[in-house]
Amino acid sequence: MIRIAVDAMGGDHAPSVIVDGAVAAARHLDVRLALVGSTAAVEQALTAHPDWRSLGLEVVEAPDVIGMADPPVASLRRKPKASIRVAAELVASGEAQALFSAGSTGATVMAAHAAFGMIPGVDRPALATTIPTRQSPAVLLDAGANVECRPAHLLHFAVMGGVYARLALNVERPRIGLLSIGEEETKGNDLTREAHRLLKAAPLNFIGNVEARDVYSGAADVIVCDGFTGNVVLKISEGLVETVESLLGDELQGTFSSQVGYLLSRRAFRRFRRRVDYSEFGGAPLVGVAGLVIVGHGRSSVKAVRNAIAMAYRFAGSDFIHRVEQDIAAAAVPHN
Amino acid sequence: MIRIAVDAMGGDHAPSVIVDGAVAAARHLDVRLALVGSTAAVEQALTAHPDWRSLGLEVVEAPDVIGMADPPVASLRRKPKASIRVAAELVASGEAQALFSAGSTGATVMAAHAAFGMIPGVDRPALATTIPTRQSPAVLLDAGANVECRPAHLLHFAVMGGVYARLALNVERPRIGLLSIGEEETKGNDLTREAHRLLKAAPLNFIGNVEARDVYSGAADVIVCDGFTGNVVLKISEGLVETVESLLGDELQGTFSSQVGYLLSRRAFRRFRRRVDYSEFGGAPLVGVAGLVIVGHGRSSVKAVRNAIAMAYRFAGSDFIHRVEQDIAAAAVPHN
To answer: Would the ipTM clear 0.90, i.e. be above it?
Structure first.
């Protein structure tokens, strides 16, 4: 049976939201979940679910916590019993098949790297986020694991994003685009121009540069960029959707007829929100490390945690790592 | 009287949209407009406005055009009579007080730089775009004039953005934020970390790093970033707003009650769109060059051209360049 290590202490509302999400996932999946954290705190959160012992849940003691703002490298060194480290080691030892954490992304990346190392041929891990488009969902990577990237890293990301799109989004021949500020290959910055050259030469379905305004139109199935740019893209989108909703709400309070309109269209709004709501996807896989890791949003809701654990479960049932190894070898990917 | 040089040949729908927008502006402003371009083509477009000769419009011959996809440097060298060059030279010679172009941004930046040079102390120009926020509008720069930036350039942008916010947005003490991927000064990439240090030491109302998710919430009046990131921010926002509208439209067609809701709330939608519609602002000043330049979107509508020319008119009546000179000197801005 698949066993998933859950960092019960990671996230803005840990452990309660994490534990509630894990319980919800365990009710619907044929899975064993190891809740890693302070036994006292986790068991306290579990008291809300009196039947938890019948759900395939167990608590694994890890007395230390790395906070969202703690410096990852120094904290991991100082805290060998931090929940994220203990959880990553369960995967490294084969006791669990995948890891979920909604804690500090930096600490998760470091702990995973230390515990399993990288897939051969890959230099840097990347966060692969699923985003909605006017057509089907697409994968954007790196969403923030690496802020300084070299051209070869973007090629690795393209190969891994392609494997992920085939496995997770069921796209047979994913269209891979490079995020830049102009469609011509001469447009962009030094990084994107050189990455364009590498992507063009690789055995990929590379469709060229994708401008930011086409990301949400569904022009590509896989959108490749450095982690600084990818993180800005996701965060600006989150903020803009919130602002659009809020401004629209202001406008719709103006008159009686638009209030009536608002009430009548509320159901449509709710359905629309679901399409742009990250919590539907739950988390983003950290690809490139030699183990399966799903990273959740620090502000994850119970539903987001449940969906992220379900994603880890599906991921653990795939042969993602082996497929990436094969594709990286086939692409004869140059190192930086 | 203020005279503005208008690149009549720049933009996806030039010269007709540019000429129509210029006529609309001339009807409402006490201004003289020099329409620079092929006399035959411009006069042809003017036939739609039989009274144009009474509106303070004149045609300045420039037989060559630089297209949106033409390489800027090579094209400018090859075409001394390109409309953007002739228009920039009208400003350099003092025959016009400001320039508007909706043509290739690269060619406009190069032509302006060649014609007037830079404001003393500034190394690189930047496009200062006005964006809507949940509160009042804010300025984001650089929106795409320079894709490779050094930390000192971001400091110059901060100083110029501050002057612009005071003059154009009437913010007495603009809050200046550095776009990064984490609020702590240690977060971000090499560029933002070093820029943070420079901004903190300068005589500015620097509020620290601003995360992308807070750009549209109005956390800062001036948002500073490199031109690659800034361009991605604007284009992703454009694409996302279009996608939101389209997805919402799909949802609202689902049921009778939501259709009724849509009809009733349509006016609210229209008012909302105006708040996020770039054409309301019309254009973005190119700051840092020693002359006044407004850059329009390639897809500018007639209304956008009219509003951009109105912006150039207000800009020409301000002492922007002098104020930037003073503030750059006061900041004792280091060079790269």
So the answer is: no
